[in-house]
Amino acid sequence: MTPQEGRRGRAARRPAMPWYPGRGHPTSEGPSSGLSPGETPEGSLVRPYTMTRGRVRPTGTGPRLDLITIVVTARERREHALEPECRAILDLCRRPISVAEISARLDIPLTVVRVLLGDLLADGDIRTRAAVPAARLPEKKVLQAVLDGIRRL
Amino acid sequence: MASADSDTRPGEPEAIPQAVKIIIAGGFGVGKTTMVASVSEITPLSTEEVMTEAGYGIDDTEGVEEKTTTTVALDFGRITVSPDVVLYLFGTPGQNRFWFMWDELAEGALGAVVLADTRRLETCFHAVDFFERRGVPFAVAVNRFEGATDYETEEVRKALDVAPEVPILLADARDRGSCRDVLVALVTHVIRGRSPALSG
Fold it and tell me: How much is the pTM?
């Protein structure tokens, strides 16, 4: 394959991807959030769903929790009323942090984090700021802030 | 920023920053996470999404026509661009069969960088196709690997058959300055696309 062969009119063949050794997760190309090389995440799948009592989506009618929805703890709460995972989320969210980052730092799958955040939101323990909806593109001043910030790198 | 604060309660003392994201796409092992690491203010993180998908007769479930649960890792980094705006950079899952994650990644994305490797340019075709179809603005960064023939960006443009306004840059994913240049080109392209009157 050379660039001259071009993108159009190609036979859409998808090469089989070998399992990529030496990483924390077979589908990750980068550093893991905590798994050792060769360790598989399967063992962690049972426990997370017990955290959510089997639920795979957030209950209630709260805002959608996107990968980059920013979450911040709204109030302190008495520890005894909370699951340890929710306690950990509230500790982590004292500073605003994205849903994806909560999942990575606590090593809890995204789906599970979303359920737990839905509960915390319904109870008034957290506040969120949603990502810009797909239909409504970021404001010009947001884009300019991004451009200025990147230029400073 | 107050107008966009639809989820915050009035009277709350602390404003929550607005998050935006840029997607770093390309074939497996092309340097997506390397690029994220070069510009991120945090060590790239990896999060897991558990998805249910139909069994396609691949891997060890061959021949089994059932729904299977798949765990996909997403690698990402963060750049706090201002007190009000946080930029997240997400690498697409490297393996093609994790297509289902692309829709969620693309939703609301500011734009995308397609990392290309001239030794196997075809591995980025599907990314180019995807962003064109979705109308997500993108730039192409040709990662310069040792041993790769040094193609001119115009040769790559011809091969990829992308619009003339799509930025194509030679890049080194390991180099912060080089990655910065790619991101600046992308965001400039995005801003021009928003305000055609200003682009000349």
Answer: 0.79
